[in-house]
Amino acid sequence: MKRTLKYALSAVLTAAIVMPALATDNFPDVPDNHWAFEALQRLKKDGLLVGYPDGLFRGNRPASRYELAVAIHACYTNLKSVTDGLDSQIKALSDKLNGVATTADVQNLRDAMTALQNEVNGMKSYGDDIAQLKKLAATFEKELQSLGVDVEALKKDLGDLADRVKKLEAKKPTVNISGDVNLLMIGGNSRSGNFGIDQDGKLNGVNPVTKGVAGLTTDLSTLEEGAFTFSSTNTEGPKWKGTLVVGNILDTFGGQNNLSSGKPYVNGGTSVYLQDFSVKFDSSIVGLGFNAELGRVGYKVSPYILQRLDTTSYFSNERWDDGLYRFDGGILGFNFGTTKLNVFGGNNDNITATSGMPINTFTTGPVNGAFGGIGTLQIDRTLGVNLTTPLTSNGSLNLAYLWLDGLTPLAIGANTANRLAVYGGDLNFTFGKFNVSGGYSKSDLDNNTSNVNNQDDAAWNAKIGYSTHKWGLTGGYREVDANYLAPGDWGRLGVQRDPTNIKGWQVDGHYNLTHKLKLTASGEFDKGLSDAYPTSGFNTGSKINTYTVGLAYQVNPNLSLSVGYEDTEFISLDPSVVTTSLNTDASYKWTTFGIGYGLSDTAKLTIQYQVSDVSNEYQVTAGGGGRFTGGLLTTQLSIKF
What we know:
Layout: H1 2-13, H2 37-45, H3 65-97, H4 103-121, H5 126-139, H6 141-146, H7 151-170, E1 175-189, E2 196-197, E3 202-204, E4 219-232, E5 239-247, H8 249-253, E6 263-264, E7 271-285, E8 288-299, H9 318-321, E9 325-336, E10 339-347, E11 363-364, E12 377-391, E13 395-412, E14 415-431, E15 434-447, E16 450-453, E17 458-467, E18 471-480, E19 492-493, E20 496-497, E21 502-512, E22 517-528, E23 543-554, E24 559-571, E25 586-598, E26 603-615, E27 627-628, E28 631-640
Parallel strand pairs: 3-6
Antiparallel strand pairs: 1-4, 1-28, 2-3, 4-5, 5-7, 7-8, 8-9, 9-10, 10-12, 11-12, 12-13, 13-14, 14-15, 15-16, 15-17, 17-18, 18-21, 19-20, 21-22, 22-23, 23-24, 24-25, 25-26, 26-27, 26-28
C-alpha cells in the first residue's frame, strides 16, 4: 500500500520521462525488463494509471496537464479509501478484544493487530506525500476544475487526511496481549540397577507403581503450561498488567522453591493462578520523583540478600527464572536525583494456585538437605527497604534491610525463632575491561522482640574479572557462616543449594575458540568454616571441590549443540551427623548433551539428556544404598506470542 502511493506520486511528478514498451497484463508498450515495469504494473492494477484508449502507456509522449490532473485525482481517491479502511479495521479489532475467550482468538487478534500496526507504521511518511498532493492540486487547479473536481473540497480533505494519518500513527489497542506456551517432557531411566539423581535432587528411573527401577517410557511425565500477560498501552496515567498461568508444571515441580530430595517426578494436577497483577503510577511528592506499584508484585535485591531460588534446572522460562519473589502488597519508589529508594512489603502466605500449591514458597536457609543445616524458616510477611546509588560513573552501591516474619517457628537449640532480619549491601565497579564486585550481609534471628541468635550469621564475597571479545576470566573468594539465613540464591554444591559453614575460592572463565565454538569452565574450592556446627555436614577438615566444563557449538543461526560435565567432590564430611559406619566422602558427577533448534523467531525446541553418577551415603533417598547411576531426558518446546 505504501509503495503504491509512492509510485503514484513519482509517476505524476515524472510523467514526461521517456519509456519504451511491451507486456502482458501491463501496458503493452512497456517491456518487462524496463526499470519502471513493476511501478506501472502496480499503478495500473490499483487503477491509478489507465493509459490511452488503445491500451498503450505511450511513455515517449509528454503528458498533458489534464492527464496529470487525472492521475492526481486518482491518487487522492486511493489515499482517502486507505485511511477510511484503517479507521474501520482498528475499531472492529478493538471491539473484538472485549469478547476474547480462547487462545486461538487471542492469537488471531494479535496477528491481525500486528498486520494492521505494520500498515499504520508504513504510513509514517504519508505527511510528505499529502503535502505534495496539496501542492499539485494547487498547481493544476484549473485542469482539475475542468474535470468536475471541487478543488477547494479536495484541498480541505487533504488537510483532514493529514490530521487523520497522524492520529492513526498514534492509535494503539487499549490492551496488549503477550505470553508463552511451554510443552515439557521429562523421562528418567535407571542404569546398572540403580536410580539416577539429577541436579534438583529428584530420583530418575523410578516405576511410579512398584517404586522399582525403570526406563524412559515408564518414568515419564508430560507437562504443559500457558501464560497470558495482559497490559495497558496508555502512555499517561496509571498502567496495569497481569499474568494468568494455566497448566500442570507448577504442581509437578511442587512449588518453585520446594525441592524434595529422594523423590521422583510425579505428574501434578492442572492449576490456574495469577503470577502477578498490579497497577503502577508515577507522581511527585514535595518535588521528589515518586512511583508506586500495588497488587501482586515481584522483587529481588541480590543473590546473598533476596533472590528467589532457581530450582528448575531442566525447565527454562523467564517467568520462573527471573529471581523475583512474589507477594501481595506494594513497592514505593522515591528518586533523589540519581539515587533510588524502594520500600516494599506484603503477604507471602496464601499466594497459591487453584490446586492449593504455593506459587513461590518463601524460605530461608540451605535447601535440599543432603547434609543437614540450621534449618529453614518459611516467611509469611515481608517488609524491606532497598537503596541503590551510583558511585562515580564507574560503580554502584546497593543496600538493603529486610524484616521477615516466619509462618512456623524455627527451633534453635532450646529456643524458637519466628522473625528474621537480613541486612547488607553490594558494591560493583567497572574499569574498562576489569570488573570488581563484593558484598557483606548479616542475618539476626528473633523470637518476637527477643534475640535468639546473632553469631556466626554473616556472609561476604569479593570478585574481580577481566573480559575481552574473545575470552574472560573471573576469580573470587567467599565465606558463609553456618547460621547465615537469607532468602537468596548464592550457589549449589552437588544438589544442595545455598550451602553454609563454608569458605573458599571460585574461578570461572570462557574462551571463544571460533565465532561459532565457545568453551566455558569453572571451579570452586571450599573448606568447612567451623567445627561448632556439625549439622551443616562440614567441619574444618572437610573439603569440597567442584569442576565444570562446557562446549557450545552454533552450527547455524537456528541449530546449536552443547556438551557439559560437572564433578563435585566432598571429602571428609562431618561424621557426627550420622553413624560413623557411613563413608564420609561423596561425589556428584553429571554429563549433559543438548540440542537447541529455533523453529522460528518465537519458537524453540530444546532436547537434553543427562547421565548421573552419584555416590553419597549421606543422600536422603527412598533406597539405592548411596549409589545413583541413571539418566534424565528432557524435551521442551517454547512458543512466545
